[in-house]
Amino acid sequence: MWDQRYNTPEYIYGKTPNDFLVEMIDRLPKGEVLSLAEGEGRNGVYLAQQGCRVTGVDSSAVALQKA
Questions:
Q1: Which residues, other chains included, contact 37 with Cβ-Cβ below 8 Å and sequence gap of 6+?
Q2: Beta carbons within 8 Å of 14's beta carbon, 6+ residues apart
Q3: N or C, which terminus of the chain has less Cβ within 10 Å?
Q4: Is residue 15 pLDDT above 90, yes or no?
């Protein structure tokens, strides 16, 4: 199901990170982050840009390819 949804050139949720994550980033310690249900990578990329070491996991191989 998710592979079919993600199998488009567009990013389903865009490339901008989740608003809540952006608001809370200063409260999170920098370090290793396990990002579950990562999808196309928008939150994982943002976390990496903020200095975190990110491992992104998702059930959709198609989404992870885009990430």
A1: 57, 58, 59
A2: 42
A3: N
A4: yes
Q: By the 8 A CB rule, do 54 and 48 touch?
A: yes
Q: Give all domains of the chain, ordered by start, each with its CATH number.
A: 2-66 (3.40.50.150)
| Cβ-proximal residues to 7 (8 Å cutoff; 6+ apart), any chain | 62
pLDDT band for position 21 (cuts 50, 70, 90): very high
Q: How buried is residue 43: exposed, middle or buried, by Cβ count under 10 Å (0-12/13-18/19+)?
A: buried
